[in-house]
Amino acid sequence: MGGGPEKEHLLIVLWQPEPKDVTAEIQRRFPHFEIKYFQQLPPEGGQIVDKRGQVPQELWQWATILITLSSLPARAEDAPNLKLIHLFMAGFDHYSNHPIVTDSDIPITSSSGIHGPPIAEWIVMTTLVLSRRYATEYEWQKQHHWGTGREMLVDGTDWVGKTVGIAGYGSIGRQAARVFKALGSNIHAYTAGARATPESRKDNGYIVPGTGDPDGTVPRAWYSGTTKESLHAFLSSGLDALVISLPLTPSTRHLFSTREFEILANTTHAADGAPKKSRSAYLINIARGALVDQPALKAALDNGVLLGAALDVTDPEPLPSDDPLWDAKNVIITPHISGHGTEYTLRAFDVFMVNWARHERGEKMFNLLDRHKGY
Amino acid sequence: MGGGPEKEHLLIVLWQPEPKDVTAEIQRRFPHFEIKYFQQLPPEGGQIVDKRGQVPQELWQWATILITLSSLPARAEDAPNLKLIHLFMAGFDHYSNHPIVTDSDIPITSSSGIHGPPIAEWIVMTTLVLSRRYATEYEWQKQHHWGTGREMLVDGTDWVGKTVGIAGYGSIGRQAARVFKALGSNIHAYTAGARATPESRKDNGYIVPGTGDPDGTVPRAWYSGTTKESLHAFLSSGLDALVISLPLTPSTRHLFSTREFEILANTTHAADGAPKKSRSAYLINIARGALVDQPALKAALDNGVLLGAALDVTDPEPLPSDDPLWDAKNVIITPHISGHGTEYTLRAFDVFMVNWARHERGEKMFNLLDRHKGY
C-alpha cells in the first residue's frame, strides 16, 4: 500500500476542559490522527485512579492511542485496538495492580522527564529554606521585626564545596544536580545499574530543553547497586544532603530507616550506646513517602541525627493531621505539589508527541513501562 | 639589597576573637609579616562604622597593612605607614565621606566577590518562595493541613525559558545568573560600561572557586549605560525577574521608581489613565535599600504592577516596625542577612591573601576602590 503512517484514533481523557491550542498542535503534527477529547470528573476521595468507569465503552473500543491521567479501561478486552497508553503521571505505581499492567502487553509510557524543572526548584528552595533558616526570617517579617541574624553567622553555611547525593539519577535527580552544581556543590549519584561508561550515563528519556544533565557529566562520583551494602557505601560518601528520587517498588519500600540515617550522619555508638555523630545531612524526599520509614525519620530529626528534612510526599497521603511527623524538628512537609505548574499539561503532551514521532520513524520510544522491573 | 619582600606590619581589627587558624595561615603564606590582632567591640546602635576610636593610636602608627570591618584611623596622619587597607565589606559606601577616602590616597580594597554564593542562594531561595507560593505551604504545615495546591496549577510557573535581568554584573549578579541559568532561564545583564568584547565580559575580581561566571558567557544579552534611556531599554527587554546588585552612588539613588516598575511590567495607560499591564516581574534587591524608591515600590506591589519583591536591604535599616513596606503584597523582607554564613571570615581573609600575593608579584590588585567612581 505505501503512503503515510496508519490512521490513528487518539482518545484523551483528562480532568480539565480541552486545551484546544494543544490538541490543535497534535492535529497539526499528526494530520492522520482522529482526536476525541473526554473530560472526566476527578475521582472521589483524593484518589488518583478512577474506579467509576466514566468513559463510555464505545470510546474505549474506538481508541488506538490513549492519553490519560487517571482512567484506564477495566480490562484489555474493553479496548482491543490500543497500541499505546500514555500516562500523564511520572510513575506507574498507582497502576501496578491494574489488569492492563498485569494481564496485557499494551505498551504504556509515562510522562517521566517533565517533572525535572518544577521539582528541582522545590528541592533547591526547601533545602535552602532549611539551611538558611528562612522560617526564622519569615516569622520576623510577620512581626515587623528587624532581627539580628546571628544564627547564620554562628553555624550557617552555603553549598559551595558541599556534597549532595542523588539517589535515583533520573530527570528530577539530574535537574537537581545541575542546580546544586551551579550553587558550587559536588554531586554523588546512586543508581541501580552500574554506570561505568559515558554511554551508560546518558539520559535516554524525555528532557525538557535547556535543563537536566543529558550526558551525565555532572556527578563527581557514581555509586550503584540494589543491595544494602551498595546503598550504605553511597550514604557514607560524605553527603551534606541526600535527595531521594527513586521509584517505589516492593524492594525500595522503607529503604531509608534508622541505620541509613545514622550512616548519613556518620553516627558511631560509644561503649555506653550513646550516639555520637561527626557530621550530618539534610534529607529531601520528592518521590514516594513509603520509601522512608517515617517514625524512624521523625526520631532521627528530633534526636538531631539529621539536620532537617524536606518532604513533598508522605505515607499515607494526605498525612493525617495528628501524625507526629508534622511537628518533627526542622521538617518541611508540603502536600505532594512539587511537580505542579501550568507547564505540566503542555509538557506531558510534548512527551507523547516527541515519542510518537520517534515511533513513526521506527525508533524506540522512551519512558516505556518495563513490566519486569515494575517501572 | 635584593632578598625577599619587605617586612610588613599587619594589623587586624575585627569584632570576633582571633581566628587563630586563619592568622596562622596568613603567617605561613607571608612569613615576613608581623601580625597584631585587635578585637574591638561592635559599634553602638546597629551602626557599621565605629566612631569611638577603640584602636590605640600606637597601633595605627605601627601598621603598614590594615584589615578591618568597621574601624579606620580618623585621619591619614594617624596611620602614616599604611600601604593598604583591606575592608571586610563588599562596598565602600559606608566610608564614602571618611577622610581616609576623601583626603588620602591609601589604596583600599573591599571583600567584594566573597558574597556571591550566600547572596545568590538568598536570591534564588526568595524568588522561588515567591514564585512557588511557599508561604501558603508553610502556613498549611503549621496547621497540619494537607492543602490542595491548586494555586500553582492555575497560574504557577517555573523558571524554564524565563528571562532574568541582572542589574550590576559583579560577583553576586554572576553567581545568581549561574544558578538561574541552571534552572533553565535566560540571563540579561546590565552594566555601566559597555561589554562588547569577550575580554570586557570577564570577572576581574575575586571569585570563590567553582562559582560565578568568570568569562561572562552566561548572559544571552548585554545592556549597558548610565542613563535612564539605557536602563529603560534593559527593563523593557522582557524580564520575568529583576535582580538589583548595583553599587549605591549619588547617581543610583532611587534609580528604581514608579516609571521603572511600569516598564518592567510592560504597563501601558489607557485613554482614561487606567494602567494595563501585559506581563509582570519580580524585583529582588540585595544591594542597598536606597537604590529603590520604597513608597513607589509599595504601591507597585499593592497595585499588582509587580508580581512580588524580595528585599534584603531597606532604607533606612533597621526598617521601622511601623513602615508600611512590611505588609506590602507579596513582599519578602529580611534584615540584611543574605551574605551571612560561617564562610564569610575565611573568604574575606582569602581575598586579602590572594590579592597581596599578586601585589608582591608586581601584579595589579583587584577590588581596589576607585575614588573617582566612588566604588
Show the helix and strand layout.
Two copies of one chain form a homodimer.
Chain A: E1 8-14, H1 20-29, E2 33-39, H2 57-62, E3 65-68, E4 84-87, H3 99-102, E5 108-109, H4 116-131, H5 134-142, H6 150-155, E6 163-167, H7 171-182, E7 186-191, E8 221-224, H8 228-235, E9 241-244, H9 258-264, E10 267-269, E11 275-277, E12 282-285, H10 294-302, E13 308-311, E14 331-333, H11 343-360
Parallel strand pairs in A: 1-2, 1-3, 3-4, 4-5, 6-7, 6-9, 7-8, 9-12, 12-13, 13-14
Antiparallel strand pairs in A: 10-11
Helix pairs in contact in A: 4-7
Keywords (chains A, B): NAD, Oxidoreductase
Domain D-isomer specific 2-hydroxyacid dehydrogenase NAD-binding (chains A, B): 125-197, 225-338
InterPro entries (chains A, B): D-isomer_DH_NAD-bd, NAD(P)-bd_dom_sf
